[in-house]
Specification:
This is Slr0420 protein. It is built from 11 helices and 2 strands. With 227 residues, the protein is an alpha+beta fold. The protein folds into 2 domains: 5-65, no CATH class; 82-215, no CATH class. Strand 1 and strand 2 form a beta hairpin. Helix 5 (110-123) runs parallel beside helix 7 and helix 8 runs parallel beside helix 10. The N and C termini lie far apart (98 Å). Mean pLDDT is 73; it is low at 1-41, 58-66, 68-77 and 222-227.
Length: 227
């Protein structure tokens, strides 16, 4: 350091970067000397402002070379959302435009409701509009769809008949009323298979009633409740 002044020396700096067979060597040599003590703060500030400018294109160049270029992605008007999916699926299953528009616009999760309709309509003899009326009313439409299809395949599937169609409609109603459709369908299938005198309808009624408090097991419960 010389009297009355500052000497800044930037040594030779080499930055090497390689990628995809390309080598970039950046050699930055900058010497600054003899910044006088008079106005040294001002000169020091100006120096670093000037020194900073070359680094902007360098940084951009490295980002571009490495593929790290960020650009805003414009939203495409034609992109589908869950309402598009809902309306399309409902119409595909025979639901009218007005009914599809009304149902999808009011559904909490439109794509799940339309999935429920699609499952029931394509795997049972229930029409799309009838399935829509039930799928629209429940909190778990996908579980409802699985419940109906499972009972239809496990019970009615073995004996397709006009009576079987009634069983499928009964399955739709019982699954809709159930708070736990997945559990309900398992219960119905098990009772129908393992209990000889249980018809599908009786199995559904029994499983649905079991979701209420089992008063047959705890008869004293009803007596202790206030009127």
């Amino acid at each position: 350091m010389t009297p009355g002044g500052l000497i800044f020396s930037a040594t030779l700096t080499t930055i090497q970067w390689s990628g995809d067979g390309v080598n970039f060597v950046l050699v930055l040599t900058r010497m600054l000397s003899s910044i006088g003590s008079n106005g040294s703060k001002h000169s020091f500030k100006n120096y670093f402002q000037q020194l900073r400018r070359p680094f902007a294109p360098i940084g951009c160049g490295l980002l571009m070379a490495s593929g790290m270029v960020f650009a805003p992605i414009a939203a495409v008007a034609g992109d589908w959302n869950q309402f598009d999916v809902c309306v399309t699926e409902l119409k595909r299953n025979g639901v009218s435009d007005d009914a599809a528009a009304s149902g999808c616009s009011q559904a909490i999760i439109p794509k799940e409701m339309s999935q429920c309709v699609n499952m029931i309509s394509r795997n049972t003899n229930i029409t799309g509009i009838v399935a829509l009326q039930s799928c629209f009313q429940v909190r778990r439409p996908v579980d409802l769809g699985n419940c109906v299809v499972d009972i239809d395949r496990g019970v009615v599937g073995r004996n397709r008949s006009p009576e079987g169609e009634d069983v499928t409609m009964a399955a739709l109603n019982s699954c809709r009323q159930s708070l736990l459709p997945g559990r309900h369908s398992e219960c119905v299938l098990a009772l129908s298979r393992e209990v000889s005198d249980f018809t599908p309808q009786k199995a559904m009624n029994t499983c649905l009633a079991a979701e209420d408090f089992p008063r047959d097991l705890f008869p004293a419960y009803s007596e202790t409740q206030p009127n």
